[in-house]
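Batch manifest, entry 17 of 40.
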Amino acid sequence: MTRYLIALLLAAGLTGCGFHLRNKLVLPADMPAVKVESTTRYSELVKLLSRGLRSSGATVVDENTPASSGTAGVARLMIRSERWGDRPIAIDERGRSQEYSLRYAVIFQFNHPDGSTVVPEQVIELSRDYVSQPTDDTGTTTEREILAEELRRDMSASILRRIDSVVRADLEKLQPRTQPAARLKEGEG
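Output type: structure tokens
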């Protein structure tokens, strides 16, 4: 009995604070398949984006798919650029860097199969800070690799959310607005 009460209180608390699960990614209905392309060969970001698109129900075409299998009518998610950078943000009394900011910037664009733009070229930049003792390099590279993988996952999610928000906004523009007309009629009567 107490388990049910605790579960009910947690559910009420989560809904009360505004928490809700994300909906699945929305792509235009006339989009048969998506191909993720990058200027960086063997990009981990491309793999993560392809996996995210597949899990949301999209058909993903990769570079191994033969051209004869209908890849002409394929939407393209183009990763134009991926840039990494480390910037020192704190130094010690000897002028050695102790804290760094790891930055990851991506430029992308999403196009319909006919070449028209769904999401215009955009830049997303993410960063994480980490501490690196100048006298002890033991854990620094491992921490940086962990942060880089985390940034890639976050970047993939950010790109997919951008695509989703643009498509949802376009769908809302196309839906007829009956609510303002109903309010107008109520005010007349």
